[in-house]
Write a structure and sequence with these properties.
This protein has about 325 residues and is of the alpha/beta class. It has helices at about 20-30, 55-70, 85-95, 120-130, 140-145, 165-180, 185-195, 210-220, 230-235, 240-250, 255-275, 280-285, 290-300, 305-310; strands spanning about 5-10, 30-35, 40-45, 45-55, 75, 100-105, 135-140, 155. Helix 4 (about 120-130) links the parallel strand 6 and strand 7. The termini are far apart.
């Protein structure tokens, strides 16, 4: 009879983690994946930008609907961000008594962002940990979550920069527990699965590096005509939000900061190499007037264009 694994966690649009990755791993190992979504994430290969946490009653409805009907063999739990949702899950586990429970606490994103509040952490330690067959945890998260907790049912993984590493491991572990293996043997087989699975090089790659280079080339070409981020986002056929994400990830600056830096560099060159008036230069660079240019220039350089020109002469 085919084994059923219920995964309770958030979504991941990249399929590298969360519900989508759980379904892939569980299915590839020959089990049937069932799912309950706790949070919908807005994310891509650069990381998570935002969350929509489903209300506790919606999570409860999902749980009751699937567990009453299918009675999954093993439950695998991932992202829980609210105390109300935690309570709903704890109640379901106590009521339905699955064969095994695997918990992969998602305390930090792969980029290091904190995803769970302190109150939820304390409640998880008090109410969820005692119901778990195995807790799969990254080394950096063990200090925040374990402390003096009895660790005989804890599997600590080395920290990995690879998005979805612990997620895939814990999903595989859930399948092996569903097959009736003891926890230590299931952990051993899950490690073997991780070691032979798809390598990092084959995992999803975004276009951020390519886009950043295209953005810089466009700025070099257009900065005299436009300092508007929307102009560049439209030209590159991406959202301003994604462009900002790319620039901050690669250069540590906003798109506007980068555009402004090109304008300042160009202004300095013009001020030092021509006798044109400040008003003429302001028009050339698309400023409404000389005062607007002076305010912009002083913000970045610390002096007015006239003072800068005087010092350079």
């Amino acid at each position: 009879m085919i084994k059923t694994i219920l995964t309770i966690t958030g979504s991941d649009s990249t399929n590298e983690s969360g519900i989508q990755a759980d379904i892939n791993t569980i299915t590839s190992l020959g089990a049937k994946a069932l799912s309950v979504v706790t949070s919908v994430t807005i994310q891509n290969t650069l990381g998570i930008q935002d969350f929509y946490d489903l209300p506790a009653e919606v999570v409860s409805g999902q749980l009751d609907a699937i567990i009453n009907d299918v009675e999954p063999t093993v439950v695998k739990i991932g992202m829980i961000r609210s105390s109300d949702v935690l309570q709903v899950i704890v109640n379901a586990l106590k009521r339905y008594h699955p064969h095994a429970v695997v918990y992969d606490p998602v305390l930090f994103s792969s980029r290091g962002d904190r995803l769970m509040g302190s109150e939820a952490v304390e409640l998880i330690k008090r109410y969820l940990f005692p119901l778990c067959t195995v807790i799969v945890i990254r080394r950096r998260e063990s200090e925040a979550l374990l402390h003096d907790y009895i660790k005989n049912n804890v599997c600590i993984l080395a920290d990995s920069a690879e998005h979805g590493y612990a997620n895939d491991f814990s999903s595989a572990l859930a399948v092996y527990l569903a097959e009736g293996l003891a926890a230590d043997k299931a952990i051993e087989k899950a490690h073997s699965y991780i070691n032979r699975r798809t390598t990092k090089a084959d995992r999803l790659q975004g276009r951020s590096g390519e886009l950043y280079n295209e953005f810089i080339a466009r700025v070099e070409k257009d900065y005299l005509q436009s300092s508007d981020v929307a102009h560049y986002a439209d030209a590159l056929n991406v959202s301003g939000r994604y462009l900002a994400q790319v620039c901050r990830r690669i250069a540590g600056k906003s798109p506007k900061n980068i555009i402004d830096s090109y304008q300042i560099k160009g202004l300095k060159t013009r001020l030092a190499s021509t006798d044109d008036s400040i008003q003429q230069i302001a028009r050339e660079f698309g400023f409404a007037n000389q005062a607007h240019l002076s305010k912009f220039f002083k913000k970045y350089v610390g002096s007015s264009p006239t003072e800068y020109r005087r010092r350079r002469s």
